[in-house]
Amino acid sequence: MEWNEKVRKLGELLMEVLCEGLGVDKGKLKELTFTEGRTLVGHYYLYCPQPYLTMGIASHTDAGVLTILLQDRTGGLQVKYHDEWVAVKPVPGALVIIVGDLLQIMSNHGYKSVEHRVSVGKFFSEPRFSIAVFFSTIYGDNMYGPFPELVSQEKPALFTHFKYTDYIRRFLTKELDGRSLANYYRL
Ligand SMILES: O=C(O)CCC(=O)C(=O)O
Ligand SMILES: [Fe+2]
Fold first, then answer.
1. C-alpha count within 13 angstroms, C-beta hemisphere, residue 82
2. Radius of gyration over alpha carbons of the chain, in Å?
3. Quick one: pLDDT at residue 29?
4. Residue 29 and residue 44: Cα distance in Å, rounded?
5. What's the gap in Å between 98 CA and the centre of ligand 2?
6. Which of 55, 77, 85, 149 is the most buried (most CB within 10 A)?
7. What per-residue confidence (pLDDT) applies to 145?
């Protein structure tokens, strides 16, 4: 419960900063309920005695606005940067913040979701544990798309609007193929 409240507060602060970075009202993401639509997922990656046969989590981008991730000291999380996989080394007491596809879309590509994966097998001889909190909306029937403030003649909308439930259904039924969900909604 305490973790839930602390993560909510951190999520709210991050959203304010991200809104300021975009030049939109700092309460905008909160107003759209993105601090309330939280899902907590615990991952437990078993140690595999044949490491070359295991992965962890295949390459993907997260669908929501952002993800706050706590990883243990095992490591294995990697992000794609300029077509190369870069290790996100565990730092004691640090959290990993991941920008999701929905933020990429609403920011009209102001922020870009990050491709990431977990590669445990090759490196480690013990299980790995992580806790992710995904931030998304609680209003599935609402329409989402680029913020109108970020669309102009000079910077046209790069994505269409869509109903959130359709969007998330697409995410849950597609393979983890590394492709951002934002690609489906490009104009
Ligand atoms: O276990 C991790 O470090 C990452 C998990 C993840 O990427 C996810 O749940 O979307
Ligand atoms: Fe993820």
1. 0
2. 17
3. 95
4. 31
5. 8
6. 77
7. 97
| pTM: predicted TM-score of the whole model, two decimal places | 0.92
Q: Which amino acid is at 139?
A: Y
Of 43, 46, 80, 134, the one to substitute when testing ligand 1's pocket (max ligand atoms within 8 A of C-beta) is: 43
Residue 71 near ligand 1, beta carbon < 6 Å: yes
Is 120 part of any domain?
Answer: yes
Instruction: Determine the Cα–Cα distance for residues 132 and 83; give it in Å rounded to an integer.
Output: 24
CATH of the domain at 91: 2.60.120.330
- What is the CA(132)–ligand 1 centre distance, in A? 6
Q: Please name the amino acid found at residue 106.
A: M
Domain of 162 in residue numbering reads as 39-185
The answer to whether residue 5 is domain-embedded is no
- Do residues 137 and 157 lie in contact, with contact meaning Cβ atoms separated by under 8 Å? no
Q: What are the per-10-residue average pLDDT scores of the chain (187 residues)? A: 92 98 96 93 87 84 96 93 95 96 97 92 77 94 95 96 92 77 89
Q: For residue 114, give the nearest of 96, 99, 129 by alpha carbon.
A: 99
Residue 89 near residue 75, CB atoms below 8 Å:
yes
Residue 149 lies in a domain: yes
Q: How many domains does the chain have?
A: 1
